[in-house]
Design brief:
single chain, Rossmann fold, 47% helix, 7 strands, binds S-adenosylmethionine, alpha/beta
Length: 351
């Protein structure tokens, strides 16, 4: 019991430390930016005290949820302490080195500053941009090499705790196939990025077949490096488009998708949901995690608005008002549920 309490204190302390580090980084970098580019007309966002308290409470609830799920063995406790410190150590200087480029792009409102070497015909138009003003968009090894830490800083160190919110509904949904051998169950993580969700999934589902798919070859290479020394069976990485998944009709038992939908235009969101429906087997599970939305997180409207004003996120303003529950049901999914945790909303549904 005492050991358990100590572990919980250690977990909370680790998360609080990450949160302070993330906030400190954002404060220092925005001060430097305002000093260097005083005329940049970039919105200055000051959190008022009440909002800060709400953010703090919401992060505490997320951590409690994370701890409880691990305690209930929904995923191994070790995931809560799994931080790639060495990786972060190499990523952090690169983030500082890259910052002036990001500020410049923001100031000039330059959104199509992509590597010359890419073949634009291979990607959808909405994808060919510098989301978040990030260097090379999603289309270079450099971008892939710093993405993880950028996201963790953005979410004050709680990105993985939010990603793990998909695991419980996924486990509940996969009960529909509990009469089958686990090794025959296929879980596909769509828009998998640099592999963070895949690692959480591999530890929570050690026997199932896990595949990750993404449009960016560079991000998949990064995922391959990140996942190369984890325990368990190999994870398959596939370069492909969420709009046209390389799977047969009714062939997949579960699909997860983390932080993709806010980067898609409305019509493509629908197309991708239909594609998920097509490849899922009957009784298969869909679990989506993405940004919170206005209807269920009105307290955080200011944060959502600031997000699309500060970062280049052209589809976000529409996304936060999009009735995804309705869309998911309309396509044919049943048992549609949604729940918000700090800055992330999770939907689950059954085909
Ligand atoms: C915000 S990142 C999220 C990555 C990852 N799921 C995570 O949790 O960090 C969005 C990812 O979606 C990928 N992506 C965007 N549009 C896509 C599409 N149409 N098909 C497949 N992947 C796509 C990008 O390459 C990028 O890796």
């Amino acid at each position: 019991m005492a050991r358990e309490n100590l572990s919980k204190i250690a977990y909370k302390t680790l998360q609080q430390g990450k949160s302070i580090a993330g906030l400190a980084h954002k404060e220092i970098s925005s001060r430097i930016m305002n000093f260097i580019l005083p005329d940049s007309e970039l919105s200055e966002f000051n959190l008022d005290k009440n909002l800060l308290i709400k953010i703090q409470n919401s992060m505490d609830t997320l951590r409690d949820e994370d701890w409880t799920d691990a305690e209930k063995n929904i995923y191994p406790m070790k995931l809560l302490f799994d931080e790639p410190w060495l990786r972060y150590l190499t990523q952090y200087p690169k983030i500082w080195f890259d910052m002036p480029n990001i500020w410049n792009r923001r100031r000039k409102e330059q959104y199509d500053d992509l590597p010359k070497s890419i073949d634009k015909d291979n990607y959808p138009k909405y994808y060919l941009r510098n989301f978040h003003h990030q260097t090379d968009g999603y289309l270079s090894d450099f971008s892939a090499s710093i993405y993880d830490l950028q996201v963790d800083i953005l979410f004050n160190g709680s990105a993985d705790a939010m990603r793990r919110r998909i695991i419980k509904p996924l486990k509940e949904g996969l009960i529909n196939f509990s009469d089958r051998k686990k090794s025959s169950i296929k879980i596909v993580d769509v828009a998998t990025g640099s592999g963070r969700t895949l690692k959480q999934l591999r530890y929570a589902f050690p026997e199932e077949k896990i595949k990750g798919i993404d449009l960016s070859g560079s991000y998949l290479k990064e995922a391959s490096r990140y996942l190369s020394d984890i325990d368990g069976d190999l994870i398959e990485l596939i370069k492909g488009n969420a709009e046209e998944l390389p799977f047969e009709n009714n062939s997949i038992q579960a699909i997860t998708c983390v932080y993709l939908f806010h980067e898609l235009p409305r019509t493509i969101r629908e197309k991708v949901l239909k594609e998920f429906f097509r490849v899922l087997e009957r009784k298969g599970t869909l679990v989506i995690a993405d940004s919170i939305q206005i209807t269920d997180s009105p307290d955080f409207i200011e944060i959502m608005e600031n997000f699309y004003k500060t970062f280049h996120e052209p589809f976000y303003c529409d996304y936060i008002k999009d009735d995804m529950n309705y869309k998911i049901k309309e396509i044919g999914f049943n048992k549609v549920k949604s729940n918000s945790f700090f800055m992330t909303k999770v939907w689950s549904a059954i085909k």
